[in-house]
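Many introductory courses stop at the sequence. We go one step further.
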Amino acid sequence: MGSLSLDGFQATKEYAQALDKEDHLRSFREKFIIPTKATLKSKKLKPHSTHNKADDSIYFCGNSLGLQPKCTAELIQSQLDTWSSIAVNGHFTDLEESPLVQWQYMAEKTAAMSSDIIGASASEIAIMGSLTSNLHMLMASFYQPTPTKHKIILEWKAFPSDHLRWHGLNPEESMILVGPDDGTYNISTEKIFAIIDEHAAETALLFLPGIQYYSGQFFEIEKITAYAHSKGLVVGWDLAHAAGNVPLKLHDWDVDFAAWCTYKYINGGPGSIGGLFVHEKHGKVVYKFRPLPGAGGFQQSNPSIIDICSLMGGLKIFNETSMADIRKKSLKITAYLEFLLRELDSPAFRMISPTDPEQRGSQLCLLFQPDLLETIFARLEDDGIIVDRRKPDVMRVAPVPLYNSYVDVWNFVEALKKALKD
């Protein structure tokens, strides 16, 4: 079962509390605003206020929308104060006692703050647009089909935004979908290699997710990229569920391009500004127009400073730790969740995420028996537990290392046990 065994865990609350005391990231929970059970049910807008921590909800939905960092409001207010006090001069002025740099450098600042998360130099990162718009732009640059090499290899459950129609080509002929291995919801690296071998002569681009959103599978990005390159393919990655979730080394892995959103694990806020990566080997292009070097040359227009300030809240927290430390807790807390779920030994669901912890991120996906999910989901929500559901039968549970605790995991499984019993 990979590098982490389930054998040493115990199914008691006292044991979960002991794990929290040993947690090297335990102080980071205090850097986030955790909704209470009461505010989750409120139908009236209320500002955040201090409360008894016993009233905290259990929020396992950071794979859909991350929680708000406490510092985000200050950063956004600083931007508003800059705008109101010096207007256009905010583009060129550093203000004393401000947490912000002058606006013209904000995108570069957040690119540098994203470096450890993405595993790339700041010059290979651009903060701009949205995941979908960035993918469209990157495809326009990197997908260059010819009459003989026009196919794109994608995975079976890619988001609709990943299914782009270009150059008037017929998707039935130019789009190759890689499905899961028989009897599973996961795609082996060997199967991807076999598909590449079968279609390499006619394929222009391999485009896969770093982590598959439905199953939580973490693909072997380095190995797959190298193999596809050896067959003459350009390689791009959709990192929507990987950025801020698992360690990435896009530069060292020689990835051609990638894009990601920042509202999930990076905690940039709903619909927050996106990011893209272009390997430095692609950044040296000569035009009459002389763009910025590296990924900055792909940047379109002026990025929204309000959006960047919202993103900076999450990035500031990431910059206080490392992806290595985040991954260390992620492996352990997700394994503890798997252990407790297996202890339930319930026929009502089965786990469809990989059992090898190295092949998944901070998410376990549970496939329920037909017609159970909606009832179970409603019961959990009534108990102040937020998870994600993919109809008709899949629940995605994501304990995020920066703000979730081992006691959260224990309480969730106890609530699930009760809901199944009832």
